[in-house]
Amino acid sequence: YQRRVRGSNRHMLTRQSRKLYKHQKSLSRVVKQRRLTSICRNKKSNRETIYLYSGSITSLSRRSHAVKPLKNYNVFQRYYATDAEITVKVPTVGDSVLDGGLKTIVKGPGTYVAMDEVVAEIETDKITVEIRAPKAGVVTEFLAKIGDTVKVGADLFKIDTSKTKGSASTAEKQPEKKEHVKESKGAKETSPKEDASKAPPAKAQKSDTQAAPKEQQAKEPSKDVKATKETPKEQSREVPASATTSTTSNVASERSERRVPMSRLRKRVAVRLKESQNTAAMLTTFQEADLHNLMEIRNRHKDSFQEKYGVKLGFMSAFVKSTAVALREHPIINAVIEGDDVVYRDYIDISVAVASPTGLVVPVLRDADKLSFADVEKTIQELGTKARTGKLTMEDMAGGTFTISNGGVYGSLFGTPIINPPQSAILGMHAINNKPVAIGKDVVIRPIMYLALTYDHRLIDGRDAVLFLKKIKTGVEDPVTLLF
Questions:
Q1: Is 465 exposed, middle or buried (0-12, 13-18, 19+ CB in 10 A)?
Q2: Taking a C-beta distance cutoff of 8 angstroms, is the pair 277, 418 a contact?
Q3: d(Cα 128, Cα 125) in Å, to the nearest integer?
Q4: Helices (H), 13-78
């Protein structure tokens, strides 16, 4: 709307200022004292320029609508936000999460995003949060870079909802065209005459370089004679310099080092595990479990179980149910120390340790004592899929009164797990191996698993820990006892 006329101080009036004079009979003569305001908006930079004119207006051209003269005016600039542009903020993840790190930018500036489409990912010390677009539009600007720490409620990126997918594609193609035009102009600037003038010096350089060796050969004939008189043995002893450098470079590359910053999740896991070691008086007790009966039941009913419930019948359901029954009989294992008090929890939420690509996560099975075998298998499958894809939420990991860690899936034979604070105990499962076992007077081969229970000895006595682990052993060796 605003245009400056070269060579003079005349300005074109905006459409808004012209509307002020519609009530006048003629535009050629305006003699009243007025303050005219001209507004110019730049849509690309969202900048608004305000021209405030003051003084006497002597004449106004009917054709060009130009004021003569306009000497007194002030210029103001300000940024404005259109109604179509919205700013997306960092959402609230949980009460204990105050900030996070910008991990990835899925949709960069200039790209079109649909409503509820993932634009960026923020990594916290517990989970990775997906930031989605509240409305469809084109991402205009990111207010943070990858790796920056962003606080909850801070501005993250902007979306222009007035633009469509077609406008985003044209905006992306424009820079490529400009670069192509620049390259073509650069190619046209080098004319054939200049190439021809540049060619002879290159040939002259080649002739000089060819002439130099001939002069050196004529001046130094003795060196050539000595070189021809060398024996084959002496030639074989010589090692090329390129071979030595290649071997040293290979050795150096094999002994290289890489420094990679720790993720926020790994930092949090390291801090919590070290706090657990420094706080709890941890002690571990062990048992052997014969899984012969459990494996027979699984082999007998696994096909019908999968057809009916849509999930496979595994060993975790039996261990979860056995642990829930044992926690009911020994409530001290489900308790926790808070200050000078012992808090007994009447509900049973069992955490299951799962290895994810970003680190160890511990989703929770709510009210595990009320779940059936099928419910346990379905929930574990859903939580495992979320952990592998990075879609676990804070609600999936909050709470937990007891933890089960299954290192046997990786072949672990024996281990002592670390308590997951603020809990008081953790059960460690290990690999199943066939071993000779004495049953009565006979020696038979049975599938044996070592069970480990690490507990906080400040709260739990050895008697309670041993009886609790024996109850789990009885439940998995004879699953029928879980029914009554």
A1: buried
A2: yes
A3: 8
A4: 15-18
CB 382 within 8 A of CB 374: no
415, burial (CB in 10 Å: exposed 0-12, middle 13-18, buried 19+): middle
Q: Residue type at 283?
A: L
Half-sphere exposure of 248 (CA within 13 A, CB side): 5
Backbone angles phi, psi at 53, to 5 degrees: -95, 145
State the catalytic residues.
Answer: 457, 461
Cβ within 8 Å of residue 9, ≥6 positions away = 69, 70, 71
Task: Give me Rg for the CA atoms of the chain.
Answer: 39
How far is the C-alpha of 365 from the C-alpha of 382, rounded, in Å?
A: 11
Each of the 484 residues of the chain gets a pLDDT tens digit; together they read 334 434 333 344 444 444 444 434 343 333 333 444 455 555 444 454 554 544 444 444 334 444 444 444 454 444 444 557 888 988 887 767 788 888 889 988 989 999 889 999 888 877 788 888 988 889 998 988 888 888 888 889 999 888 877 766 555 554 444 444 444 444 444 444 444 444 444 444 444 444 444 444 444 444 443 444 444 444 444 545 555 555 555 655 678 899 988 888 888 888 888 999 999 999 999 999 999 999 999 999 999 999 999 999 999 999 999 999 999 999 999 999 999 999 999 999 999 988 777 777 899 999 999 999 999 999 999 998 888 887 888 888 888 999 999 998 889 999 999 999 999 999 999 999 999 999 888 999 999 999 999 999 999 999 999 999 999 999 999 988 887 6
CA–CA dist 250, 432 (Å, integer): 43
| Residues in the chain, total | 484
Assess whether the previous peptide bond of 221 is cis (omega < 30° from 0).
no
Alpha-carbon 193 to chain mean position:
56
Would you state the structure tokens that stand for residue 112, as one six-digit string?
A: 């079109």
Nearest to 86 by CA among 133, 129, 150: 133
The phi-psi region of residue 367 (left if phi > 0; otherwise alpha if psi is between -120 and 50; otherwise beta) is left
